[in-house]
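Section 3.1: Structural characterization of target chains.
Under the original work plan, the team committed to producing a structural model for every single-chain target entering the pipeline before any wet-lab resources were allocated. The record below documents one such target. The sequence was received from the expression subgroup and is listed exactly as submitted; it comprises 62 residues.
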Amino acid sequence: MKKVMWLSILGFGLLVACTPRVQLAAPDKPIEINLNVKIDQEVRVRLDKEVEDLIEENPDLF
């Protein structure tokens, strides 16, 4: 009876030792988010103004 108990404990120990382990760790570098945002609002306003002036100069275009 003692041999069966020791074999089952040994088998359980080997079984537990072979199970995969998931480990969570914080990264060593900080997370960097690079947002390259360029706003070209001025170009659009200029273009709209040029189109408006062109239509005023040539009303028969459209």
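The chain has a mean pLDDT of 76.
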